[in-house]
Amino acid sequence: MAEKWDKQFMAFIRRTSEDIRRTGEDLKVEAERLLVEVRDPARQAKLKATLTDFRDKAAAVTKEAAERLEGAARHVEDFVSRGLELEKPPGNSAKTASAASAAQAAPSAKEPPPAKAPRKTGKTIGKKPAAKKAPAAKKASAAKKASASKTAKTLGRKGV
């Protein structure tokens, strides 16, 4: 039984070696053909011409893109400057406008900081203020506000 397997294995190796030999020869022929094509002066000239043409087109496209970008930047700059001119009060020059914008950016030392709101006085328990007695006046004002808001809220057809 071992002899049968040995014969089959040897047949497989012969077939495989023949396939590998044929593949090697095909690869050798193809490599030689490619080398001839690469060394051909006509092909090299054609390739150089194609690369030169491609380089020229790329340079032209890059130049056009740069010009368009510069135009867009000028357009944005003009738009912003017109917007800033509209914000300036009449009679101000560019120097005073830049000084005014600098003054707005950094608070001056001459002006005092804005005052804080005064604290409410009254008795407090913990953090909540103590209840005060004067609900009658608050109830009357709340009733007036409620009646006024009822008439002001009609948006559609009346009487629906």
UniProtKB/TrEMBL annotation:
Residues 81-160 are annotated as: Disordered. Residues 93-109, 132-154 have a biased composition (Low complexity). Residues 117-131 have a biased composition (Basic residues). This is ATPase, F1 complex, gamma subunit-like protein.
